[in-house]
Amino acid sequence: MSELNRRTFLSAAAGTVATASLAGRASAEGPNDTVRAAVLGVNSRGKAHIEGFTGTKGVKVAVLCDPDQSVLNERLNEFEKKHGYRPDAETDLRKVYDRKDVDVVSVATPNHWHALATIWACQAGKDVYVEKPGSHNIFEGRKMVEAAKKYGRIVQHGVQLRSSEAIQEAVDHLRKGVIGKVYMARGLVYRDRASIGQAKDPDSAPTTLNWDLWQGPAQERAFSKRIVHYNWHWHWNYGNGDVGNQGVHETDMCLWGLGLETLPSSIVAMGGKFLWDDDKETPELLSSSYMFPEQNQMIEFEVRPWATNTEGGAGVGNIFYGSDGYLVVKNYSTYETFLGRTGKEPGPKGKDGDPVGKHFANFIAAVRSRDPKILHGPVETAHISSGLAHLGNIAYRVGRRLNFDPVTEKFIGDSEADALLTRNYRQPYVVPDQV
């Protein structure tokens, strides 16, 4: 974008030129040239993005970006001390998109920025690694898919399970029928989520934080230190609760393991707040079920506010149920199968190291080859796995069973639920119907 205060997206023609230019550069320079990366959002998950890029051969972190100058300075100082040079600094992601010396961006902002940051990057000719969940709502996810296709960009969803060799092996066992006909997947998120308290007095945004920019596409509200910089997860304006936080790793795993590439036709959810009289808006406990009648499969998902008992060894993970046994994905790199009716006959096991670095390496390999087909977490899966979480939240919020058309991505005869498929966007941070 040529001006910081531009209130519209890049034109299709400009995006096409940028795409052709970057693709031509990659082709001309060859696979050994440095890929220059920018990390957007460096307070929490962004630290893992920094390490993911610095640990990948042929990549240089050129820019760090965050709307909070104090957070940005802290991360720059840490980076310089560890890596021996200081990246450029930006507080506004739009300035990053203006730069011709940035090839790829990673989006580690709060959830409500993920889709718009990705779409803007695609229009600016940048490839994208976007943190989970890919979107804040169903509408945004579809627009991300359209933008990546229209502008020919590589978009990787940050679900590193898909780059774990052990979990890839587990999925291969499911495909080969090791536990027989697989009919159901269960996702588990048993995390310790304490009270965030109640705000008694109005807060003032720190002078180092651009609060307007931080809010971006969300509806404007007063600043609260109960929200920034982590507890936004539990507010509908910015986050999606734990099913849309930690849970997207597991919704994605459920879909991947079952071989599903579409959203469900029927959704039911129930839950609430039972423990804390605090400022959280999202439920502490959420149980949701998703039916895929054409495939004769279903998904069950449970969020709990305590790190309680495990199920088959998984507290944050997945269980796949088949006619001849079950398979448990215990974490990002370990699985185990149990065969027979007693569940006492162990099947294949697998374990490997942390797959985060492998996921970034896979992204860069796709960027260099200009081949989205080699991506482990392509944008289409980002839309579907995030969308599953969104549908569960919508069913909880309206308080009834919902029928959904996965082709049109609309509810059947339910305007109240349809209204929650998108949001009212705040100028100039608008996700448009036409990307």
TrEMBL record:
> Which Pfam families does the entry link to?
GFO_IDH_MocA, GFO_IDH_MocA_C2
PROSITE patterns per UniProt: TAT
Q: Where is the Gfo/Idh/MocA-like oxidoreductase N-terminal domain?
A: 36-158
Q: Which InterPro entries match?
A: Gfo/Idh/MocA-like_OxRdtase_N, Gfo/Idh/MocA_oxidrdct_glycsds, Gfo/Idh/MocA_OxRdtase_bact_C, NAD(P)-bd_dom_sf, TAT_signal
Residues in Gfo/Idh/MocA-like oxidoreductase bacterial type C-terminal domain copies:
201-259, 359-430
- Positions the record marks as coiled coil are none
The GO terms this record gives for MF are: nucleotide binding
Protein name per Swiss-Prot or TrEMBL: Putative dehydrogenase
Q: Which organism is it from?
A: Singulisphaera acidiphila (strain ATCC BAA-1392 / DSM 18658 / VKM B-2454 / MOB10)
